[in-house]
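User: I'm curious whether this sequence folds into something compact or stays loose and floppy. Could you predict its structure so I can see for myself?
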Amino acid sequence: MKNIYCLSCKKPYSIIAILFILAIFFSNASYSQPQSLSPTSPSIDGKINEAEWSDAKVFTNFFVTIPKTDEKFYDSTIVYMKQEKDALCFAIKYWPKGKVISKSLIRDQSTEEENEFFILLDLENKRQNGYIFVFSFLNNQRDMQVYNVNNKSSNWDWVWYVKSTVFKEAKNGEPGYIESEVRIPVDKLQNKNEKQIGVDMQLFSYKPDGSYYYYNLLPEAELLSLKNLYKFDLKYPFAERLNISFNATPYLVADRFNDSSYKGTFGGEFNLSLNKHKLKTTINTDESTLEADPFRFSFYNRAIFLSEKRTFFSKDLDIYSSPINLFYTRSIENIDYGFNYTFRSDKLKTGAIYVQSDPRNDGNKNKYFITRPRYYADDFNVGGMFVHSERPGDEYKENIASFDGFYRFPYNRVRLGVQYAKSFNEYGGDVKKQGDAYNVYGYYQSDDAGGPYADWGYNRVNKNFQASTSFTGVIGNPDNYDQLNLSGGYKWVFNRNWFSDLSWNGYYFKDRQLEDDFINQENYGTNLNFKLNGQIRINANVSMNRPNDYDENGNLIIRENLGQEYSANFVFGNNGGYVGYFFGPYFGSYIKNPYIGLNFILFDKFAVNGSINYLDYFDVKQTIINARFDYKVFDKFYIRSFYRKDNYTRQSLLNTLFQYEFFAGSNVYFVLNLSGEKLQYTSKYFKIGYEFNF
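Assistant: Here's the prediction. I'll summarize afterward.
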């Protein structure tokens, strides 16, 4: 973190903070709750006024897509949809036959065992790219971007409004009654069809007995997919932002470690849009990862893919996605400043990013430039990418050029894709190397409600191909290698209380050095997953991992790691738990890894989670205890506390976070961290960021 001011040195830092906070509350920022645009415009209060929705399109015939059943309506649902000048509005009347289950209290979080309503929008009406807006009936929200029909990115955030009111709980066989209202501003979403858009509304109804039902507008609709959508005719074209729009998000970050003075950073992001063009700039980018990095760990030292929550990157990640991950934004840290330009039309989407960073705080400025154009048609898209990076501290320069394409067969469920990349690299100005890589892949899915599915892929990386900005950060491969992966299976879905679904999967993976046809590792296995009595899910996995290596004398070492894992999940309404056991021969030893976890929801406001994970491997006997507490004090105000104790490293961690959310992307945080064997090390963190629109 770059230290701009010392708060204990009588700098005018506190004055700036006070003025900043006052500006928030006295500003006329456009992200305040919208007022009614006309007498018939709905107020989003979770109470449906018939007069406000009298001109809306009404949907009553929802279809059960999972499970396949002749029962048409397990839960009764009526949805109203209407268009406003700059928004789409929805009202939902919902009569659940069982208690509404909601386990997620924090924005952008969800489990598989709760009731949620999904709104899918294809504003271009091309079945390629779109948006998903999800809410629980206890007002928790999350949102996603969709690209290539059904690939999803949860890093994207949008400001939209939802309010639900539970008028009656389901009791004694009598259905409950809930009303919800939703307003989604679309004026800033680019590339809107003038006459017609694609829409789907999906209800995931999870029952206290563990059974579940998916409802869709169309019987042929796919889950969270843009393939088959209802065509909604617009009364008038949505206004494109032909005028200039500007917004600024200043933020203030301050932290303190042990008894040191507070150190802070004042920075911000500034966005300018004109029609289909957007330019974002960032200064002293906030590198905090409070909301981005969950408390996750890996016993086996595997890299953990972290989501991106820095808005400078997050809202444009769909443009830069590719099968070979050449641009992992979390690889760029401690940003001094940057520029992000995007252009989005009906068929062309392109972006360019320039960033300068100082990751070591030593004055050696790393520079990055990335650009990617993508052309979209109804059933295919093609794109290119160029990545340039400089690291003066390492005397290293890197250039990568790439081409990729994706094709979806119009009337079946087969998708195919390909990518080719070539790198040009310099070391110390004298040594230059080149390498290339390519990937071909495909997948097939018969039916969301069941049937066969398969995916396959082949990846080859030739010697000297380098991509330091990728997720794995590959540098200087010693040999040409290739990778082959195959998987497939079958899913059965039944309408039975005692046996609701069954899924079987088999897979094969091979990683090979091509120079001497040496197999680095070879994996194959099978997985069986089924649900009993609606409330118990059983999972069984058996895998053979064969990593090969040479000892110090050059002798081949052939290992066979036969791993077995058996686990079960238990669900009882809003509460549940899991238990599992992984074991087998592992790199010359025998590994034992039992684990157990429980979670509870109390009064729809408290979430309590705990787990114990034990590892017995060689001389390591490690126990990790986790406990987490979430409290939704009221809408937009959350308290989260996390505790971890590791008996092997003798380290403990206690993290407590207070968060107030003005709206998506604008928050106030205060964090207290205690760490060490006796929690003797302390750190405090404060952050406030707010988006102003002009």
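Summary: The CA atoms of residues 471 and 667 lie 28 Å apart. The domain at 50-233 is CATH 2.60.40.1190 (Immunoglobulin-like).
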